[in-house]
Design brief:
By secondary structure, this protein is α+β, with helices and mostly antiparallel strands. It has 27 helices and 24 strands. Strands 1, 2, 3, 4, 5, 6, 7, 8, 9, 10, 11 and 12 form a twelve-stranded mixed beta sheet that branches. Strands 15, 16, 17, 18, 19, 20, 21 and 22 form an eight-stranded mixed beta sheet that branches. A four-stranded antiparallel beta sheet has the order 14-23-13-24.
Length: 903
């Protein structure tokens, strides 16, 4: 206890708290020492010594006032801490005295640190931390399904049919539990208050994977989640309960309409609970069986509607490899059950396989393209930090030249190299700390934009206030201080002490060190690499926008209707669709309208197909069904290559006909002409559907070159086979689609019965998310590369401005001796351009070496595109020339008389 008290007293004394150590005040301490020395002097005088000799002897006895005060301070406090605090105060005073320099350095560091903190917080949630509340995450897996397509490529899915989920429950032996979950968009609320929101349809055992007791009420039970229809009960998310119900406990028992079902609210989740979520924040959790039954009655006993993901908890004694083998066996049993052949090669090699993979989707085998781009951007952000640190280091090196004489004086009066190094590092740490704090504040303001940039929905609430991110920011501040300050601090220790003391400010000379030149080269090279990445992504976006999708989305509006439980017969629903198409065509500016059932880049319908001579057609790939009116192909802009399109004579009672895409014709009938061929839909004994036309290939799931198969039915024949498909339309307009969306929605809404409604949006908005990996890459690479270029230009300008300032006398002498203005201008400019060219060459080599890593993220663009490299090189050289030209012009205007008189 005594030691702790002494330690506390010393610490308090070092921090300057009064009352803990009265002697700690320098003034009081010196006063006491002077009093003691005066008494000793008087004693020596009384012994017969002269006053001067007595004073000198008294000082020798005490070791000097300063030395004695230091010894006493070391007893009553921590001398090293007092030195650090003194260095911090000195550093702050120095920074305040040079506001422009301080602002540039802090702004540079803030940008570098802020970008990295934002990217770390974002990637941490994508890859590193498990979902909140998840129990024993090391034993929990998302179940992925893999198969080999007809082209030999592996296809991986993270969603499957509810019926297959039931098969996994029945036949797996490796998982203690398997839960189903699906995140969907649905209309929530009644009347004018209804709006599209995210909801989660889950199995009752899903909540058991988490240690997340409800904040209010209870969760639904297995009895309430049993096929065929479950019970219409719902659990609200905590955030929705607080925002829409003001946190009222009376919410229990209230009704909430989701889609066509009116649910009874029975509970509220704890704060921050979103399940697996994949970045989605559902406002409510409902039984999967209730949701499935509201969408289609056959959801649980047929394998035709893929919408659920599966979450499994592995048994403790089961390894991941054993779990994969067991789940694969269960999948193949399910596959054979779907085919109706229980003994047909259950464990046949090369068949479908199941994988117990990571819970986080973006750590698994199906990471989204935008996520892969985000990883690269994380690396780019660190490069920007290196550019910022190099820039600051160069500024500090240039500033160190101005302080060379100051450091020499400090060393001459007894300052040790270690003590001076500590002071300079303290200044760097102060700068890095302030810059990092500013960077975190900027990151906090900018974090919300990341999900929109990368099109990867991610919950960013609290992202920059949790301990992991703040710890990363603190570590980054220390790293930044070392990177930016260590080299200038070490450089300041070198040099001729006597020469520095005798030299004036300008006479001390300015010979740029190899370190400074190396930093400039590194900055330029890193900028080249970043701008090459930006150029390649921009080229990718240009190529992407020029791709022929098989339809023209630029002038299309997508219309979707929701009946919201309004009861209509099949004939009434068909009549409603026809009225909507007719009304849409009446609006000025509309040039075409058609119904549809499959929406590119949003969702498509798949039905069983049977073709004579082709076994297991579903193993060839996904055959997507489309149905529309005779205007379908003209409205969409899809070309019919051979045969005919949909005709007004193709009715419900006429022979079944269809158009197929070129790819579908090739995979089913090879070199034979598809026209006149027969295939059967839904059942092997169904009437023959005759191919009457071949349409161009379209892309509905991505921009890649993978083959997609599509076929088209007349809408009346589709209704005859499957019933009304729901209300979906495409409308082609003459002008800007966004301008006609409002009037079209208002007119169509008048035709909707009861509580039903329509939503209208430009079709380009549906496609745009699929383009985000490339647009996000272009945007972020260009932004970060451009700002890194600005930082490098500032650094280059600052270094050469200091050089000109220190070479004033030399330049004045050259002018006095007859040097032409052009030669003086070139004297400065030549050196800057040589550094820029060398940096461009180094950066080009680095970019070429890294090009293979980025090639998979580009779209039909070579990672070694010479045009991109040429434009980047020219840009860097021009910017470097501009950065050097201003100091060069200043040097050329130096008057010889002024230069020769300068010190």
């Amino acid at each position: 206890m005594r030691r702790l008290r002494a330690l506390a007293i010393r610490l308090a004394g070092s921090l300057g708290f009064r009352g803990t150590r009265p002697e700690a005040s320098d003034a009081e301490l010196r006063s006491e020492l002077e009093s003691h020395i005066a008494m000793q002097t008087a004693d020596y005088i009384s012994r017969g010594m002269s006053p001067d000799d007595a004073r000198r002897q008294a000082l020798l006895d005490s070791g000097g006032v300063a030395r004695a005060a230091e010894d006493i301070r070391s007893v009553y406090g921590f001398l090293w801490l007092e030195n650090v605090l003194a260095d911090v105060r000195y550093a702050i005073r120095g920074l305040v005295a040079r506001p422009l320099f301080t602002a540039v350095v802090i702004g540079t560091l803030a940008f570098g640190v802020g970008v990295n903190v934002v990217m770390f917080g974002y990637l941490d949630r994508l890859f590193l931390r498990p979902p909140k509340y998840l129990v024993k995450p090391e034993t929990v897996h998302r179940i992925y399904l893999e198969r080999t397509a007809s082209d030999g490529r592996k296809r991986i899915a993270n969603r499957t049919e509810y019926g297959r989920y039931l098969d996994f429950l029945r036949w797996n032996r490796s998982m203690a539990e398997i839960a189903a979950f699906a995140y969907r968009r649905a209309a929530v609320g009644d009347g004018e208050q209804a709006r599209e929101m995210d909801i989660a349809a889950i199995s009752a055992n899903f909540f058991g994977f988490f240690n997340a007791p409800p904040a209010l009420g209870r969760y639904f039970t297995t009895e309430e989640d049993t096929p065929p229809a479950g019970e219409p009960v719902a659990v609200l998310s905590y955030s929705h309960w607080r925002s829409d119900y003001a946190g009222s406990r009376d919410v229990l028992g209230a009704a909430l309409r989701i889609g066509t079902v009116r649910y009874t609210i029975i509970g509220v989740t704890p704060p921050g609970f979103h399940g697996i979520a994949d970045g989605v924040r559902p406002i409510a959790f409902v039984p999967a069986t209730t949701y499935g039954a509201s969408m289609r009655t056959s959801y649980y006993n047929r394998y035709s509607w893929t919408y659920v993901g599966m979450l499994g908890r592995r048994k403790p004694e089961v390894s991941v490899a054993a779990a994969n083998a067991d789940l694969t066996h269960a999948l193949r049993l399910s596959w054979n059950a779907e085919l109706g052949t229980p003994d047909a090669g259950t464990d046949k090699p090369g068949g479908p396989t199941a994988i117990a993979g990571p819970v986080l989707l973006d750590r698994g085998p199906q990471a989204r393209p935008a996520t892969r781009v985000a990883i690269w951007i994380g690396g780019v952000a660190f490069i920007v930090l290196l550019v910022a640190c190099a820039n600051v280091a160069n500024l500090l090196l240039a500033r160190a030249v101005r302080r060379r004489r100051e450091m020499a004086v400090r060393r001459a009066i007894g300052g040790t190299p270690r003590r001076l190094l500590q002071q300079l590092l303290t200044e760097s740490i102060v700068l890095a700390t302030i810059g990092s704090a500013a960077g975190v504040l900027g990151a906090w303001a900018a974090a919300g934009a990341l999900p929109r940039i990368f099109a990867v929905p991610q919950d960013v609430d609290g992202m920059l206030t949790d301990p992991r991110t703040l710890g990363f920011a603190a570590g980054l501040a220390i790293l930044t201080a070392l990177l930016a300050g260590l080299v200038p601090a070490l450089q300041s220790r070198a040099g001729d002490l006597a020469g520095s003391l005798k030299a004036g400010y300008r006479e001390a000379g300015y010979r740029r060190s190899r370190t400074s030149t190396g930093l400039l080269l590194a900055q330029t090279a890193m900028c080249v690499a970043l701008l090459v990445g930006a150029g390649l992504f921009i080229r990718s976006v240009d190529e992407l926008r020029s791709v022929r999708l098989g339809y023209d989305p630029e002038r299309l509006l997508y219309v979707r209707g929701e009946l919201r439980g309004t009861k209509l017969s099949d004939s009434e629903e068909v009549a409603l669709m026809q009225r909507l198409v007719t009304e849409a065509r009446r609006i000025p500016g509309v040039t075409g309208a058609t119904t549809a059932i499959s929406v590119p880049f949003s969702g498509g319908e798949v039905q069983d197909l049977h073709v004579a001579g082709v076994d297991s057609i579903h193993t060839l790939g996904r055959f997507e069904l489309q149905a529309g009116t005779p205007e379908y192909f003209r409205t969409m802009g899809t070309r019919v290559l051979r045969g005919r399109g949909i005709s007004a004579e193709d009715g419900a009672r006429t022979p079944r006909v269809a158009l197929v895409s070129e790819a579908m014709a090739a995979v089913l009938w090879g070199a034979e002409d598809a026209l006149g061929k027969c295939f059967r839909i839904d059942a092997e004994r169904a009437p023959c559907t005759t191919v009457v036309g071949v349409a161009e290939n379209i892309r509905t799931r991505g921009f890649g070159s993978d083959a997609e198969f599509h076929y088209y039915l007349p809408l009346p024949q589709y209704v005859e086979i499957f019933g009304p498909p729901g209300i979906e339309m495409f409308v082609r307009v003459d002008g800007e689609p966004a301008l006609l969306a409002g009037p079209l929605q208002a007119m169509l809404q008048r035709q909707m019965p009861g509580a039903s409604y329509v939503s209208v949006a430009p079709f380009q908005d549906v496609i745009e998310p699929a383009m985000q990996p490339w647009t996000a890459g272009a945007r972020m690479f260009l932004t970060l590369g451009g700002l890194a270029l600005v930082l490098a230009a500032i650094g280059l300008y600052a270094v050469f401005a200091f050089a000109v300032a220190h070479r004033t006398q030399e330049i004045g002498i050259r002018i006095a001796l007859g040097a032409h203005t052009t030669s003086v201008l070139w004297l400065v400019l030549d050196e800057g351009l040589r550094i820029a060219v060398a940096g461009v060459l180094i950066g080009t080599v680095v970019a070429l070496a890294a090009s293979s890593g980025i090639s998979g993220l580009l779209f039909e663009v070579s990672p070694r595109d010479p045009a991109v490299y040429g434009i980047v090189a020219a840009t860097l050289i021009i910017v470097s020339a501009v950065a050097c030209v201003i100091p060069a012009l200043r040097a050329a205007r130096v008057h010889p008389a002024v230069a020769l008189r300068s010190d």
